[in-house]
Structure prediction request, 575 residues.
Amino acid sequence: MCLRRLPPLMLPFVLIALVLPGRAEAQAPLEATQLPGRTSFYLVWHGSPAGDARKNNALMSLWDDPDLTPLRVAMVDAIMNDANKQKEKPGLTLEELAQIATLLDNPFTMGYLPRREAAAPKAAAGKAAAPTWNGMFFVYDRTGKEELLLNTVLRMRSGDKELPKLSEVTVAGVKALKIEKKSGTTYWAETGKYMVAAGEESIFEEVLNRLAGKSAGSSLADSQAYREAKPLLSGGMLEFFLRVPQIKDMAGDSSTSAPELKAMWSNLKLDSLHVFAGHISLEGARTRLQGGILGDTAEGSLFDIWSAGQSQPASLAYVTPETVYFNESQINLLGIYNTLKRVLMQPGSNSAPLAKTMENAAETRIGMPLPDAIALTSGEFGTLQTSPALDPDKKIFFAGIRNKPESLKLIRTILSDRLTSERNEGNVTYLKISLKGNQGATGVAQWNFYHLAVTPDLLLGSSKSETLRGMLSQAGTASLPANLQAARAQFPEKLIGFSYYDLQKLDWPALKQNWKTQMTKAAVESKSTDAAQKTKMLNDWMSNLNPGVFPRHLHSMTGASWKDASGVHFDEWLD
Prediction:
């Protein structure tokens, strides 16, 4: 949502920065102490790392490996070259793409400032609504990159189909360029060592003044929201901050919103989520993403959609030493249901009758009240993979259940015309489901089968019956692998989410071939020229990519999330 309002010339910087870690010691153009107190959102990039910090980090050493060149080039090329706009223009050379990527050596700050309440325009009677506010701004430290930055901007502008209206203006004593297009206006200036862009003249002026040290008014660092998020922002080389309740203002001018829309935001209780913040840091060989959503977690708030967490979820019993990938999360389905009812069935809303009709139809179909059906689930969901080549036929999906007999009854009701067989073996019930064709339709064949296994506490699914049986035959026979135990031990006891990826177990050459096969198949099935072109491009760079580059640097990826009195937290590690 914020990226959509970013001045388009700055989008490549942001997209590349989101996948490339930086260093913590570089000074950003605008830090939190320099930003206005009303700032809704900011993202600070401190520049690419150098020296031992870069050399010793697994992700950065992978990024710098010559064998990764095809992937690096493909990423920058996809960002810089829009095939639909530049079909008649030659693409960038490898050297040009490599040069453009070095723009990320330098730090930048981007953010969003809401309109000052006193400055909100009123639409005149009988006239169109007031212009949509675009409070995005971007500041880039162009030191040593002046010529490269100019050439890159000119290259991007040359691909525009629409000829913009350009005019010179002076804002805050700085000569600037005003770029007007049908999609909006951008103000652009190069002042001192900085390049500055913004979508509103008042924002442009405010940012220029703060860069020059002429700032007046409160600082974001003094706000309650920032102080609440500060522990999640310390030590990051890329850090981000968002005041969640102000999302509704970014989505449109709240002062002119319809009463029903305002009521929807109110019933959603978005205000209970105060801030979404976090940072990325390099910690030796590991790269860390840490953050959270903080706010008022009292019952009845939007935090109800997350469960309290578990220390020993049922799915852990199915993890073996052969497990390559495991992902488990827990949500409060009843909390989600109650939240949706509160939002959609508000008195007097246009959505209430339709929502009620759909609820009644669902309850008639399953033969019980929706809350009772939801109560049969534990809220645990996830996937598990044992194939080093990530074979889709070896992937297992699972969902936690309570009361197996009642859960089976509900499954039979929902899948009555798709259920082709049912068989009990011990405490496991195996079901075969047809994804094509109906059992009761005379003369209609059934095909594309899917297989389910219902245990006392889990519903497991796979495209192959033997995958399920193999998994269940090993359940509970081995202790949790030591590497996974160690990974989980670094987080709180009760988690609402946990994932572990053993990257050393992957068969990278086989995985590369599987990806190419799947992409080609998807392109053929879509019958789209555009999809075929994209598939050819991906196949081209994958053909030149040495898959051995990945296990050379990467070992594992681990992540967890949990809920406490202050909110929901997440912590991800790449080693």
The chain has three domains: 2-120+130-244, 296-504+554-574, 509-551.
